[in-house]
Amino acid sequence: MSLSLLEVDNIESRHGSSNHRLPANDWLRREEKARVLRTLRSLSLHNAYDAIELVKNRPTKIESIASNGSKLHLACVDGSLRIYAPQSAPSSPSDPSSNGSIQRRPYVLEKNLGSFSRKPIVAMEISKSTNLLLSLSETITFHRLPNLELVAAVSKSKGANAYAWDDRRGVLCFGRQKRVGIFRLEVLGSKDFGVFEEGRFGKLCLSVNSLRFRANGWSVEVKEFSIPDMVKSIAWCGENICLGIRREYMILNSPSGVLSEVFPSGRVAPPLVVPLPSGELLLGKDNIGVVVDQNGKLNNDGRICWSEAPASVVIHILYAIARLPRYVEIRSLKAPYPLVQTVALRDVHLLFQSNNCVIAALENSVYGLLAAPLGAQVGLLSQVMRILVIFVYDFRGGCACGQN
């Protein structure tokens, strides 16, 4: 809803007789019109999230982030891994509710692993099904939580620039140069993970398209497929893999290796592939997000129009959340995908979906976008409705102000 003050004046003048005009000294003076206008504009907006600063003044630039329950894992540009936990309140040093979700309180450093990786970790996530930390640096590695012992290192992923992990099936895919690799990691019933170095079998993997071998309680399968260009963005969609390469989107069928084109990517922004809770995909085309099914077929109703071309998008509950240069933009996932909220955080270089919130990492600090309390949202909407009722009655000459 976007009325200007001039349009409000025109609405009054179109009602003809002075009986319908409001007295000059009534509450709906020009400054009051401005207040009503702001209220009308806010009717379609509400604070779905509160931005809470969790970690501040980090001396080293944050490169990637993951969460495990209430704890945050921050990988820094110097190759270190820092684990943060919520600061305990003096009255309740051991709050059981803090074990499974990100908290609305400052976070403090719990552990610092200064030499976790020789090079910066550009991406990482935690597999809930296997309790492993996946990280992409020189190669893709798996570490067992909570002690972070090395479980597997995928040597064929050396030089990879993007990956996607299917936690339900235990399958990893990654893009390296003009190839896509698929890595399946399965526990064979042993409770002891052991340490497995896939690089021992590297020479064999170079000469065949697919291998399956076993070591120390793990079953591993590796496949490789050639693609036309370097992968910029990648995501699983069932047994298919959606690839955002330099100039277009493609669907790769992982069992057969069949590659099919979807449509060209944008001219300004790099390709962006985002899985949706429905099983569909959101594909970026500059400032437009296009919804397609698992086979790349267009959804006629699926088109999100962002204010600018987003650098990244995450999905959380009912919202699509985009990282823009000047702020974070939040839109509903229900067509026609209206704007819900903008969060004034500049220079966010990473968005991450946690279990109960979205994490926004700036260069040296971390914010949590946590769902606003329901009571606050209901109170805001009630206030808006009261003002609108007063406005409508007064506009029609009923003068609801001061009436009992």
TrEMBL record:
Residues 59-358 form the CNH domain. Keywords: Cytoplasm, Protein transport, Transport. Transmembrane segments: none annotated. InterPro entries: CNH_dom (IPR001180), Vam6/VPS39/TRAP1 (IPR032914), WD40_repeat_dom_sf (IPR036322). It comes from the Eukaryota. Pfam families: CNH. GO terms for cellular component: cytoplasm; membrane. GO terms for biological process: autophagy; endosomal vesicle fusion; protein transport. It is found in: Cytoplasm. The keyword Protein transport applies. PANTHER family: CNH DOMAIN CONTAINING, TRANSFORMING GROWTH FACTOR-BETA RECEPTOR-ASSOCIATED PROTEIN 1. This is Vam6/Vps39-like protein.
